[in-house]
Write a structure and sequence with these properties.
alpha/beta; 28 strands; 46% helix; eight-stranded parallel barrel
Length: 1044
């Protein structure tokens, strides 16, 4: 939805090559000799003055220097700040203290700072750590007395002391617990001439209830500010303002929900802005993650068009300099200001989500990063953006948020006497720099960005601030370091960047290159309409041609009676047709595969790998078509369909790498002199690969690619419900160079095809993914035949649990529970089935989870806004309904989402949540969007683990705890193949999290792991007596005459 060339320019810069962007930025930001001299003079003066008054700096600046995030103790502080204040039960709080404080080396920080705040914190933390660790090493007198005092008082006193210390830490960053308290604490600063922008602390809302609460807090803040600062005649730029975080005001503030956000959030924001205008209090829309920028721009433009707001100069927004889009966004805002005939306040910041953006880009496999990978690049971007803002004259009101002396000095130089702008700093930080600037009376205003809220809401804000300003390379950190030369502190970042080659950070590889042994599969951002909209159109167009799946035997399409393949989201829609393989087709395919096995194995690992890598490239070229089939044939949502293709590509490339490593040549074994011993791997022969409908491309490809990579020939039997995507995959594999006799496609009924194959001794093995019952039936059939013992690789179901203790962050638990339980309509073998919540926090977490469920949308999976699509067929829905009707007699139904009437022609089963006594109530896996919740008490963790083990399944396990010892205890006690801590428990990445379970959950080895291909292989040893031809030449040459 690109509405103008300026918006198109923003999209074009989203993931642009960093070297190209920085080259332009250097040209725009570079200081002239005169500017450089003036900037360095002012910056040097500021730094020297700050160092002279270092003893007066705030506790926060000192604390960040002493406890940087690069130290173990700094990390410990963050863990405590994150968890301790919200842990309601004493037992878990004591475990947390022992786990975190006990691990810190607090002694090394003793007396290292001039700040009383830091030293007091160090003493408290050091003593607490010693008591918890029961360390009786004597120190000097004062230390010993306090330690003995705390030791005698016991852990409850420790807990209270540490909690109090964390509250003090919070007060350094938060201006007040509510807006009234904040206004009172702000008054001394306001009397000195400082302006304020108040930020109502709170992260993204997950429920409508949370969003309403945050909206009310903004309304109350506006009214309280107006009451405390009633001078409405002053320019809005000199008045207090509020900063609004849009994700806190709508639970689905994201591009894929654009229509809903514009319908629901925009009117609220327009009403808030209208009231703010009436009160003459500015509103600034805060910037968040890069994926939210486009929708933020849409909202901002629409707010300015509202008749109640039109022409008002108090409505502003934030621009992040670390994004490559910063300058195009500023250009768009300048044009918007002219179109809307108003001056727009623009707060320029460096950005606080850098680590999140990097990880997200790598996970998504996108072409590049939305942010810069070097700090000098961000600093250069900031200066270029500052120039751009000043160049826009009266179209914008620049607001420069910085704690950096060089940045401030450079902007002051760029301004060349102008005073119609302001500098901003965070409350509790940068006081010395901004105070000295005011002393110099250089003209610009100063505003303090002040968080307001309870200390429990502090964490995410605190971590972002410390990441932004507390890293060892930041100005704030270097300024307080006496060993840091002033020349380095005030160095020009533009020249630093210009001198770097390459300008992209080589230690942060592109998302495609993060894996050491293969190229990462390519993805893209659905939030980028330049890519997402054409992709969806291409997907839809690709299905206009007839889709067919027929038996492919030796490359020949076999004939038979065609049956329709229907879309599970609308059973009236026919996606294509399928012809099932006959018994004769199956026998012919087995014969051809058996005859081809020796030549395919002899090809060697390298050449087989070349073919599989070509197939991966072809999959990516056919991405839109494969995604379309996953959506229409398997009912997958569009994002899930992209994940399906990416996983299949990952399997092809990973197993290609394994083929080169394991199947090209042999391994020389040790032995006595006079002989050589070589161990080599070879394909077992013919494998039948039986794949499921829930991952009809990824698992299908993984099994087939595994067999082919190992040198086996393959009979591919896709699930009855999803033959079309399997047929498309086989054609691509043949196109890549897999011989037609090495890979055959046999769509049809599983038991019938199995009966035609399993008794034949030419079949070397079966790779199967599906139910435990079906795996047992295959195992029995293979075991009952005469001839060579066949191999069975089985990945089956799971009764997967997640254990959550009271240290877990409720919002993170909510997000991970919803994703784990309901993504793909719960039709993942890894999906969460039973959620164990510690009783102390269960009510709060259940409330958030149920509220967030209301925000999920069931619908047509070809629509990007759909969260949950259909289940696969009528039989699956009937089984789920049977379970719901049965379990409700002995469990409590907490929530059941409605199914919209317009979906009646599809096979939809809505998410259900039941509360049960424990996992033992469930007799078998429930394969769909049904979540069961059980409670546990703090002293029952061992019993919970034992109950999970008693099911016999062992596939995935989720753990949410900030106590490392708790996570390790659960990991060691529960028998599960894949354990995930503080994240969701689905979406295992090939070669990163090899996937597979134990017990009733499968045989192993793990798919996508280093041992998988070996299960398809035979081992052969080749020994040669090198002395048989007479004499041991190598021995004689090595020993010479001395050996004779």
């Amino acid at each position: 939805m690109i509405s103008s060339p300026l918006r198109a320019a923003i999209s074009a810069a989203y993931l642009e090559d960093e070297n190209a962007v920085t080259a332009r930025l250097i040209a725009k930001a570079r200081l002239s000799p005169e500017e450089r001299a003036a900037t360095e003079k002012l910056a040097r003066d500021l730094v020297l003055r700050i160092r002279e008054t270092r003893g007066e700096q705030t506790g926060v600046d000192s604390l960040m220097q002493e406890y940087a995030l690069s130290t173990q103790e700094g990390v410990v502080l963050m863990c405590l700040a994150e968890s301790l204040l919200r842990v309601p039960d004493a037992a878990t709080a004591d475990k947390l203290i022992k786990d975190k404080i006990g691990s810190g080396n607090w002694d090394s920080h003793k007396g290292q700072s001039d700040s009383v705040f830091v030293n007091a914190s160090t003493w408290a933390l050091m003593l607490t750590g010693r008591v918890v660790k029961l360390d009786t090493t004597a120190g000097w007198d004062f230390e010993g007395i306090l330690r003995r005092l705390v030791a005698r008082s016991g852990e409850p006193v420790i807990r209270q002391a540490v909690t109090y210390a964390m509250r003090i830490l919070g007060q350094q960053f938060v201006l007040g617990r509510n807006i009234d308290e904040a206004m009172k604490r702000a008054k001394p600063w306001r009397d000195k001439g400082y302006r304020f922008s108040f930020d109502m602390l709170g992260e993204a809302a997950y429920t409508a209830k949370d969003a309403r609460r945050y909206y009310k807090s903004y309304q109350e803040a506006l009214r309280a500010i107006a009451s405390a600062a009633p001078d409405k005649a002053t320019s809005v730029f000199q008045r207090p303002s509020i900063s609004v975080k849009l994700s806190a005001l709508h639970p689905r503030y994201e591009w894929v929900k654009r229509d809903r956000v514009m319908d629901e959030l925009l009117p609220q924001l327009q009403a808030l802005a209208a009231e703010a205008r009436e009160l003459n209090i500015g509103i600034t829309l805060d910037a968040e993650e890069a994926e939210r920028l486009d929708i933020m721009l849409d909202i901002f433009e629409a707010m300015g068009e509202d008749p109640r707001v039109k022409g008002w100069e108090g409505l502003g927004m934030v621009v992040q300099a670390y994004q490559k889009r910063a300058l195009p966004v500023i250009a768009w805002l300048g044009d918007l200001a002219r179109r809307q005939n108003r001056r727009i306040p623009i707060r320029l910041v460096k950005g606080a989500y850098w680590d999140t953006e990097v990880k997200r880009a790598q996970e998504l496999g996108i072409s590049d990063y939305p942010t810069f990978t070097r700090k000098p690049a961000t600093d250069t971007s900031y200066l270029a953006a500052a120039r751009a803002l000043l160049a826009l004259g009266n179209d914008v009101y620049p607001q420069f948020a910085t704690h950096n002396a060089h940045t401030l000095a450079a902007i002051q130089t760029f301004a060349d006497g102008r005073t119609d702008f302001e500098y901003q700093r965070l409350h509790g930080m940068g006081e010395a720099l901004h105070g000295l600037y005011r002393e110099k009376n250089l003209g610009g205003g100063n505003r303090i960005y002040a968080p307001v809220g309870t200390h429990e809401d502090l964490l995410a804000y605190l971590v972002r601030r410390l990441l932004e300003n507390g890293a060892n390379t930041s100005f704030v950190n270097r300024l307080a370091d006496d060993e840091a030369p002033i020349d380095e502190i005030v160095a020009d970042p533009v020249e630093q960047l210009a001198a770097l080659q390459p300008r992209r950070n080589p230690n942060i590889p592109l998302p495609a290159d993060i894996l050491p042994d293969r190229k990462n599969s390519s993805g893209f951002l659905w939030s980028n309409p330049v890519i997402s909209e054409p992709t969806i159109a291409e997907m839809q167009a690709s299905l206009k041609a007839p889709q067919r799946a027929v038996p492919l035997v030796g490359g020949e399409e076999r004939k038979g009676t065609a049956a329709p393949v229907r879309d599970p989201s609308d059973r009236n829609r026919i996606v294509g047709e399928v012809i099932e393989a006959s018994d004769a087709d199956v026998k012919d395919a087995l014969t051809k595969a058996y005859n081809a096995r020796i030549a395919w194995n002899a090809l060697g690992g390298n050449k087989r790998a070349d073919i599989l890598e070509r197939a991966a490239d072809l999959y990516e070229k056919s991405q839109a078509h494969l995604m379309a089939l996953a959506v229409r044939e398997a009912g997958k949502s569009i994002p899930n369909a992209l994940g399906e293709v990416r996983e299949a590509v990952d399997f092809l490339r990973y197993y290609a790498g394994q083929a080169r490593k394991l199947f090209e040549g042999g391994v020389q074994m040790p032995g006595p002199t006079g002989e050589t011993n070589e161990l080599s791997l070879h394909g077992r022969g013919v494998f039948c690969c039986i794949s499921p409908w829930n991952f009809p491309l990824a698992i299908f490809t993984g099994q087939v690619a595994g067999g082919l990579a190992a040198g086996c020939t393959v009979l591919a039997k896709p699930a009855e419900q999803t033959p079309l995507i399997a047929a498309a995959a086989v054609k691509l594999l043949h196109q890549a160079g897999v011989p037609v006799d090495a890979l055959h496609l046999l769509p049809g009924d599983g038991p019938r095809i199995g009966n035609a194959l399993f008794a034949d001794p030419r079949l070397a093995g079966v790779a199967f993914t599906g139910s435990t019952d079906a795996a047992n039936a295959i195992n029995r059939a293979l075991a009952s035949r005469t001839g060579p013992i066949a191999t069975l690789i089985a990945e089956t179901g799971g009764q997967n649990a997640m254990i959550v203790d009271s240290t877990a962050l409720p919002e993170q638990v909510c997000r991970d529970v919803l994703g784990s339980a309901f993504d793909s309509a719960g039709q993942r073998c890894s999906a969460l089935r039973v959620l164990y919540l510690q009783d102390d926090v269960a009510d709060k977490m259940i409330d958030i989870i149920l509220g967030a469920m209301d925000e999920l949308k069931l619908g047509d999976p070809m629509l990007l806004e759909t969260d949950i699509g259909p289940v696969i067929d009528e039989e699956a829905r009937a089984n789920l309904q049977k379970h719901a009707d049965t379990i409700v007699k002995e469990a409590k139904l907490l929530k059941k989402l409605p199914v919209p009437a317009e979906l009646s022609s599809g096979v939809f089963f809505p998410p259900h949540v039941f509360e049960i006594s424990g996992i033992g109530q469930l007799k078998r896996e429930v394969f769909g969007p049904v979540l069961h919740i059980a409670r546990w008490k703090a002293d029952e963790l061992d019993k919970v683990c034992d109950a999970i083990n008693a099911t016999g399944y062992g596939l995935t396990l989720g753990i949410h705890s900030r106590i490392d010892a708790t996570a390790e205890f659960i990991r060691d006690r529960v028998h599960a193949g894949n354990v995930y801590v503080n994240r969701n428990q689905i979406g295992a990445v090939v070669g990163v999290q090899p996937f597979g379970g134990e017990g009733l959950s499968g045989t192993g080895p793990k798919a996508g792991g280093p041992h998988y291909l070996q299960r398809f292989s035979l081992e052969r040893t080749y020994t040669v007596n090198t002395t048989a031809a007479g004499g041991n030449a190598s021995l004689l040459a090595g020993g010479g005459s001395e050996g004779i």
